Amino acid sequence: MRIGIDFDDTLCDFGGMLQTETLRRWEVDLGALRAAGSRPEDRLGKDWSKLVLELLETDLGLQMPVKPGAAEVTARLAERHELVILTARHDHESVLARQWIEANHLPIQDFHFTSRGPKHEVARALGLRVHLDDTARVFDSFLDHPTTGALLLGSIFDRGDEPAAHVRSVEHWHAFEDLVRTLEEREG
Ligand SMILES: [Mg+2]
User: Fold this and answer.
1) Where in the sequence is the domain holding 52, given as residue range(s)?
2) Ligand 1: distance of its center to the CA of 188 in Å?
3) For the chain, how many structural domains are there in total?
4) What is the pLDDT of residues 66-117, one digit of tens each?
5) Rounded to the nearest whole angstrom, what is the distance from the C-alpha of residue 24 to the centroid of ligand 1?
6) Can you tell me the distance from the alpha carbon of 159 to that of 14, in angstroms, rounded to the nearest whole number?
7) Among 4, 12, 3, which residue's Cα sits nearest to residue 155?
8) Which of 72, 86, 88, 139 could pair with 149 as two cysteines, CB 3.0-4.6 Å apart?
9) Residue 38 in contact with residue 50, Cβ under 8 Å?
10) Orientation angle between helical segments 14-26 and 46-57, nearest 10 degrees
């Protein structure tokens, strides 16, 4: 089957890298900030948006870690399936994403960038059987859709949005692998 995978905070640990950098540069702990109900943009102002841009577009982004479990699970999935990146990144942010995938030797066969646009039409056109994403609202438009939506929980940007009933929540990459296996078995 063809499997869609979001890039930021699904495959790469964008949030973890932000956390590392805000601590290193300004001694600001994003986790504590969030627990206190504050937003990083309010605390850090323009420094925050500059840091986000730096991660999206400069070599600093190449240092982002792979999300736990993603390297081994994608390696196993790629033995039987086609893995496709479906990200809302802009085209000009795609360069770094491709370099990062290559540097981390991940078995991705194709890339699709929606430039902050919705993903449901591209998912349909690509014939994705399942799509993994860390943002719950991405799946709002996946109701009665041929692509099963799988929500990866636990990103630092997770706003606690309750996923809709048609979305499957997965706690980590290994649970996503289990979901793929279930879909495979169901379809024989
Ligand atoms: Mg994401």
Assistant:
1) 14-63
2) 31
3) 2
4) 999 999 999 999 999 999 999 999 988 888 999 999 999 999 999 999 999 9
5) 23
6) 15
7) 12
8) 139
9) no
10) 130
